[in-house]
Amino acid sequence: MDLTFSERETAFRDELRAWFAANDPGPEPPHVEELHYAWRRDFQRRLYEGGWAAPHWPVEHGGRGATLTESAIYFEELGRARAPLPANVLGLLLGGPTLMAWGTSEQCERFLGPILSAEEIWCQGFSEPEAGSDLAALKTRAVPDGDDWIVTGQKVWTSGAQHSKWCMLVARTDPDGPKHKGLTYFLMDMEQPEVQVRPLRQITGEAEFNELFIEGARISGEHVVGGVGNGWKVALTTLMNERAGLAFFLQVGLRRLLDDLIDEAAARGLLDDDVAADRLGALHVKAEILRLTAYRGLTAVEKYGQPGPEGSLTKWMWSESNQELVQLAAELLGGEALVAGTPWGYELLRARGNTIEGGTTEILKNIVAERVLGLPRAR
Amino acid sequence: MNFGFSDEQQTIKATARELLARRAPFERVRAAAEERRYDEPLWRELCELGWPGIAVAEEHGGQGLGAVELAVLLEELGYAVAPVPLLGSALAALAIEHAGDAQQRALWLPGLASGAMTGAFGGARDLIADADGASVIVIVEAGAPRLIARADADVEPVDAIDPTRRYARVSGAGPELGGDVAGALARAGAAVAAELVGVCQRALDMTVAYVSERRQFGVPVGSFQAVAHRCAQMLLHTEGARSAAYFAAWAADAAPERLAEATGLACAAAGEAGVDVTGSAIQAHGGIGFTWEADVHWLFKRAQLDAAMLGGASGHRIRLARAVAARRGGVAA
Question: Phi then psi for B149, rounded to 5 degrees?
Fold first, then answer.
């Protein structure tokens, strides 16, 4: 057990900090869709030019071949610098690694570069109106047409679709098979009239998510990833990457928000009050446990090649703690935290999505119960 | 950054788990608890193996290992709810080692390490584990520990709700320990937190086994989400407490400048998890869990006394919040 960083890891962190010091992302713009998105896109371009867009990618694909711990440090530093998640986060964290695992060398050659540079933005077409938590129930159909595929269906909760060139799309190619079989993973070109994007206005007033209406869109046979009928397995790779990669960014985000709240509470003398201090302390305990547990998860992966029980817990811990934190801010800061357009006002609303997006807490508990604890399948 | 155990630590863990599964099954715990006594043959065996002295320096007859090894061992003793006076001896030895002087170390540590003597450690107004029969007791009053030899101690045995150990209230005069008092208190907290993690893990394992087997409405009750989600929550608490307890044990050995905060974290997390997880275990066992015959109550009772020893999660949280604010340059002290 050694909970310090190696010289190499410290050097990696120092280099990154120096880079962020010279490349200040500036203040976060208000959550007005175009403004906020442009900030994220521009900052990714700067990361790309500095060679920091995806350190976790292998060197041959334009990354730095960072270890898991270095990758964790990267996300910690990104958060500490108050930098945004890159605009193409889905391509960087999900699409790229999925292609590296399942794609052909031609696909890697064609797609990876523009993901890194934010030249081509990616979105994820998994969920459907009738296939949310039950993803394998999806109904979007793809039928062969010569070497191509013709796709018809509807997707929902597609973040960033309005900016995207490519969509990681899972569609049913064999309607007669069992529901987990007969799915295929495609890369769909969003720039065709058969794909219509309709923004979903969320409770914060902004539209991060969209509905996709797909009416006979065409996908080249060259854009099948991992083989026809193998879509469930390929999609799981994407989802595993989603959960592993973000944990450290989220962890630091929670820490940063908590430090902000502690500062504001201290400035108002609220730390002298035992009840307020107790509740802030409870959040501090949760934030620290999240950080430590995320690192324990990395050790498990590095040592045993797969996540241990703690790996399933971080997203659940983070989302509940984040909600608790913004709610406490509303209570401690009162009306000030409830003004529309202010950071606390925004976070209070946005946090309600945390326990839903990327796997609801209820589904995560089912997964923990069944796969970690080995309980009988829940009903 | 590596949270993994060394080969030696893994061997200690596996050996302890295996030995205690054989020597301290619940029948033995129950027999000792119902007669309000320790399991003497087990205690002698553990002494022969050198367990009480695992973290005592070699020059005083111990094994000279660290806080992590002690945590590993205590986690397994907590898992077994073993009815032996090891915790009290280990805590007294920690206090004397870190806060005592050379003479006190030479006088008490060899006996505590070999098991020829037993020790106890606790607050002046608290129920002190393993104090009844202890040769030496370290009492903490207003943050200051003092060492009381058996002959000078006024020991009032108390029948605590946890019958797997002997508890007592203690008073008496003795020399104050003038060494690294903060370090000694923090190490004791980290050790108790480790025991609680083991108690939580046992409660979780028993609950998962029970709800997988117990059937109602034609299916295992563990297939109902209300039950399954409770078990998932138990895991979340247990793993969170474990992360904090390991961090504190590591800090005790390798990063003393982080020990105070790490221990505060471990005490807050383990105190809360211990009470919550063992209470949940009773609930998930249904009516059976409320009976004397089922064994989950030993865990609940041990967790209550251990959590009390840690001094209440709320106090730790308040101190942590103020420490963070002070570190960030806020106005709170």
Answer: -75, 155
CATH no. for residue A295? Answer: 1.20.140.10
Within a domain: A365: yes
Q: What is the per-residue pLDDT across A220-254, written as a single tens digit (0 to 9) for each?
A: 999 999 999 999 999 887 666 655 567 888 899 99
Is pTM beyond 0.90? Reply is yes
Do residue B1 and residue A3 have CB atoms under 8 angstroms apart? yes
Q: Which domain holds residue A80?
A: 7-116
What per-residue confidence (pLDDT) applies to A154? 97
Contact B2 A2 (CB under 8 A): yes
Between A1, A278, A374, which is nearest B318 by CB?
Answer: A278
Indicate the residue of B1, B247, B331 with minimum beta-carbon distance to A267.
B331
A254 and A366 both lie in a single domain: yes
* Residue listed under structure tokens 């030249």: A119
User: What span, in angstroms and rounded, lies between the C-alpha atoms of B321 and A332?
Assistant: 14
- How does pLDDT run across B280-314, given as a tens digit for each residue? 999 999 999 999 999 999 999 999 999 999 998 99
Token pair, residue B103, equals 């003479």
For residue A284, give the nearest of B222, B255, B321 by CB distance: B321
The reply to whether A379 falls in a domain is: no
In this structure, the answer to whether residues A248 and A315 fall within a common structural domain is: yes
Interfacial A residues in 289-318 facing B (CB < 8 Å): 289, 292-293, 295-296, 298-300, 302-303, 309-310, 313, 316-317
HEC per residue, chain B: CECCCCHHHHHHHHHHHHHHHHHCCHHHHHHHHHCCCCCHHHHHHHHHCCHHHCCCCHHHCCCCCCHHHHHHHHHHHHHHCCCCCHHHHHHHHHHHHHHCCHHHHHHHHHHHHHCCCCEEEEECCCCEECCCCCCEEEEEECCEEEEEEHHHEEEEEECCCCCCCCEEEEEECCCECCCCHHHHHHHHHHHHHHHHHHHHHHHHHHHHHHHHHCEECCEEHHHCHHHHHHHHHHHHHHHHHHHHHHHHHHHHHHCHHHHHHHHHHHHHHHHHHHHHHHHHHHHHCHHHHHCCCCCHHHHHHHHHHHHHHHCCHHHHHHHHHHHHHHHCCCCCC
> A87-112, pLDDT tens digit by residue?
999 999 989 999 999 999 999 999 99
* Distance, CA of B320 to chain centre: 21
Euclidean distance between CA atoms A259 and A256, whole angstroms? 5
B328 to A259: CB separation less than 8 angstroms, yes or no: yes
Q: Is A2 a domain residue?
A: no
Domains in chain B: ranges and CATH: 7-179 (1.10.540.10), 182-327 (1.20.140.10)
Could you say which DSSP state residue A129 is in?
A: T
Which chain A residues are within 8 Å of B317, Cβ to Cβ? Answer: 277-278, 280-282, 284-285
Boundary-marking domain end, from A65, A98, A116: A116
Categorize the per-residue pLDDT at B333 as very low, low, confident or very high, splitting at 50, 70 and 90: very low
CB-count burial class (<10 Å; 0-12, 13-18, 19+) for A128:
buried
What are the pLDDT digits (tens) for A45-74? 999 999 999 999 999 999 999 988 898 999
User: Of A242, A320, A357, A362, which residue is the catalytic one?
Assistant: A242
| Minimal Cβ distance to B265: which of A288, A362, A369 | A288
> A377 lies in a domain?
no
Q: Which residues of B touch A255 (CB under 8 A)?
A: none
Chain A neighbors of B314, CB-CB under 8 A: 278
Q: 């357009």: which residue's tokens?
A: A341
Which is it for the CA torsion A315, A321, A324, A328, positive or negative?
A: negative
Do the Cβ atoms of B268 and A5 come within 8 Å? Answer: no
Average pLDDT, chain B: 96
Q: Is A324 a catalytic residue?
A: no
